[in-house]
C-alpha cells in the first residue's frame, strides 16, 4: 500500500490540478464495475491484437452478442486487464500475467468458480479480463479456459465434496461476464493410489472461512501496482 501511494505521489509531479490528476491516475489503476467488483492493473497501455485460438473465440463471441458476421481474417483488438477484485475480498488473477512471473512470485489465483444464472456452477482458468461496449454499455468480461464437468462417481461417493476434473483444450475457451465469477479456488493435482500425480486431473479446493471473512469486510491485501 505504501508503495502504491508513493508511486501515485510521484506521478502527480507539478500538475496544475493535482487532485484531478490523482483521480485520473487512480482511475487508470483500477476500474470500479459496481456490485463490489473492481478491475485492477496490470493493464495494456494500448489495444492489443488477440491472435490464435483466443482471438477466434472472442471473434465468435462478438458475432453472437452483436449479430454481426466478421471476416475469418478479422483479428479482435482490446486492452487486457490482469486482475479482478471480487465482492468477497479475493483478487482473481490471470494466466496472461501469472505465466510471465518466476514461480516463486506466482500467486496461482487464476482459477475461479463461476456461477451463471443459466449455466449453473462451473470452474475455469482466467486467461485475461477485458472491457467491451455493448449496446452503449461498457461491460467487463473474462476469457476463460473451462475445466470439464466433475467425475460423477467420485462426486457422489464423497457426498458432493470431491470435485475432480481436468482442463479442456484451448478450443473450449469462452467469454464470460466478470460478475459471474464467484470466488478464487485452488486446483490441486489429484493423486493416484500410490500417491503419484494423475495426469492433468485436479480437484477443487475452496478457501475455508471465506464467507466469514467476507461478512467481516476482510479483503486480500493488494501489494501489486
Could you explain how this protein is built, in words?
With 225 residues, this protein is α+β, with helices and mostly antiparallel strands. The chain has one domain (39-215): SH3 type barrels (Roll). It is built from six helices and 13 strands. It has helices spanning 2-12, 18-29, 52-66, 95-98, 152-157, 210-215; strands at 30-34, 37-43, 48-49, 77-78, 80-85, 91-92, 111-116, 120-134, 137-146, 164-165, 174-177, 181-191, 197-206. Strands 1, 2, 5, 6, 7, 8, 9, 10, 11, 12 and 13 form an eleven-stranded antiparallel sheet that branches. Strands 3-4 form a two-stranded antiparallel ribbon. Helix 1 crosses helix 2. The longest helix has 15 residues, at 52-66. The termini are close together. Mean pLDDT is 84; it is low at 1-9 and 18-26.
Quick summary:
By secondary structure, the chain is α+β, with helices and mostly antiparallel strands.
How many beta strands in the DSSP annotation?
13
Counted up, domains total 1
In angstroms, what separates the terminal alpha carbons? 9 Å
Q: What gyration radius follows from the Cα positions, in whole Å?
A: 19 Å
**What level of helicity do the residues show?**
10-25%
- Give the overall silhouette: globular
Reported CATH architecture:
Roll
Task: Give the helices and strands as they follow along the chain.
Answer: HHEEEHEEEHEEEHEEEEH
Helical segment count: 6
Low-confidence stretches: 1-9, 18-26
Q: What structural category do the secondary elements indicate?
A: alpha+beta
Largest sheet: 11 strands, antiparallel
The overall pLDDT, averaged over residues, is: 84
CATH topology: SH3 type barrels
β-strand percent reads 35-45%
CATH class: Mainly Beta
Amino acid at each position: 500500500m505504501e508503495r502504491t501511494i508513493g508511486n501515485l505521489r510521484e506521478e502527480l509531479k507539478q500538475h496544475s490540478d493535482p487532485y484531478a490528476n490523482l483521480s485520473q491516475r487512480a482511475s487508470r489503476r483500477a476500474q470500479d464495475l459496481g456490485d463490489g467488483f473492481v478491475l485492477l492493473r496490470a493493464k495494456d497501455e494500448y489495444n492489443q491484437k488477440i491472435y490464435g485460438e483466443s482471438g477466434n473465440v472472442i471473434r465468435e463471441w462478438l458475432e453472437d452478442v452483436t449479430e454481426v458476421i466478421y471476416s475469418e481474417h478479422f483479428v479482435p483488438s482490446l486492452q487486457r486487464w490482469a486482475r479482478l477484485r471480487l465482492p468477497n475480498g479475493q483478487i482473481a488473477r490471470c494466466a496472461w500475467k501469472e505465466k510471465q512471473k518466476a514461480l516463486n512470485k506466482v500467486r496461482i489465483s487464476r482459477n475461479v468458480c463461476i456461477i451463471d444464472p443459466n449455466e449453473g456452477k462451473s470452474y475455469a482458468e482466467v486467461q485475461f479480463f477485458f472491457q467491451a461496449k455493448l449496446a452503449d454499455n461498457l461491460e467487463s468480461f473474462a476469457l476463460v479456459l473451462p475445466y470439464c464437468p466433475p467425475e460423477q462417481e467420485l462426486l457422489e461417493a464423497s457426498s458432493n465434496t470431491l470435485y475432480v476434473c481436468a482442463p479442456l483444450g484451448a478450443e473450449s475457451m469462452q467469454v464470460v461476464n466478470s460478475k459471474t465469477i464467484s470466488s478464487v479456488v485452488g486446483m490441486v493435482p489429484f493423486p493416484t493410489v500410490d500417491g503419484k500425480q494423475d495426469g492433468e486431473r485436479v480437484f477443487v479446493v475452496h478457501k475455508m472461512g471465506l464467507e466469514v471473512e467476507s461478512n467481516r469486510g476482510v479483503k486480500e491485501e493488494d501489494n501489486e501496482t
